[in-house]
Amino acid sequence: MSLDALEGWLREEDASRLEHLWREADAVRRANVGDEVHLRGLLEISNYCARECGYCGIRHSNKKLARYRMSADEILDGARLAEKYGYGTVVVQGGEDYGIEREWLAGIIRRIKAETKVAVTLSLGERPDEDLRSWREAGADRYLLRFETSDPEVYARIHPALGARPSDRLAILKRLSEMGYETGGGVMVGIPGQTYASLARDITIFRECDFDMVGVGPYIVHPDTPLGRGEWSAPAAPENQVPNTETMTCKVVALTRIVCPEANLPSTTALATVDKNHGREHGLQRGANVVMPNLTPLKYRCLYEIYPAKAGTEVASDAFRSDLVGRLEQMGRVPGKGQGGRRRRDTSTGPAPH
Ligand code: 5AD
Question: N or C: which terminal CB in the chain sees fewer CB atoms within 10 Å?
């Protein structure tokens, strides 16, 4: 799909034409990754962060937030819980926290891999290559690092560098892939200053980078951040500014599925947060094939406030798990088996049906 066609779809508001987009994305999803929905248990292991991202509630200088870091045993328990519920993956996410030391985490990853069958996905920010390499050697399978926007000016305005090191997430993603990680990129939808043209470009970058996973969620205003206070924002002209709505996020998920047919795409917590009734289902019906139930102990979960009123406040339990599976089955979907890594289409048998 051309940039112009992508931008045209992002600007589309006709309900019946959008129905056509949802149906197309759903058909491409079924033909390429099937009806399985892979469940990833999410562990938010630390809300310390060295960075000052202008939109994020756990940014370093937010003094209103009490900080926590989970212990090795708590992380191990979380991974065992993921395995017990049949989630094929544990996602170890946190701020860019240098209190998470390279060797300490490498030891935990080795234990998870030795003691459970779950895949390990990391999402810990722009760590130096030595850290990323050591964690990969310890057995980590995947790494998530959204590049947030491909517009260099918007990116630079909301991502202050850490010391002298430039922030270049696309370069880090490339190196992650060379290290043998499955890599996940992604963006927020509706960042002040984000234009339709730049969002269309983001979607073409998903395809060019051949990401194994792409995470897309709406930007949500956090009042205790510069962007939330209106300080660092420079919105685009009204006719060019992307809104941070549920429907706009669904358009991006659907178009991403069409251009990256075999990628694993989550229906994100942020999407469920902006529409508590339909967000998660719409994501799954419009291209997504992954859900990330939260396994973080509740005493910490309320402190992992990257944005306010985050969805997913339910305790991890057998009841929650069966309720979720029931909802998936009502949509004609089934919980994924195994680790749910990227499966590449066998290209020797001719073109894909789409
Ligand atoms: N609104 C929406 N998403 C956010 N993230 C961080 N802060 C916010 C916010 N205010 C997302 C970013 C980051 C991911 C872990 O969470 O995209 O990459």
Answer: C
